[in-house]
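During the reporting period the student researcher (J.K.) took over the structure-prediction task from the postdoctoral fellow and processed the backlog of single-chain submissions. One of the processed entries is reproduced below for the supervisory committee.
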Amino acid sequence: EVAKVSPSGYYKWLQNGEKRALSEESDYQDYLFLKEIYDQANGKIGYRGLYMEVAEKAGRPMNHKKILRLMRKFHFFAKVRRANPYRTLA
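J.K. obtained the following structure tokens:
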């Protein structure tokens, strides 16, 4: 065990290399689609809003967990508006 990986795990990883490459390409295409919607909203849209927009534009919804995963993977997050410190609470 050189890399602290079992032989069967290593060979399974080798065998699935093409599948990983395909899923990476698919993720990138989905990222571009999400990024386009995100940029139209000036970054003020979270995963829930993205989910609704994707369902509306693509006709088929993308799983919200996938949207969250892609947002984490490609480092884009919703901008949260800062509270107004001068607002009076009645």
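The committee noted the following: The mean pLDDT is 91.
J.K. will present the remaining backlog at the next meeting.
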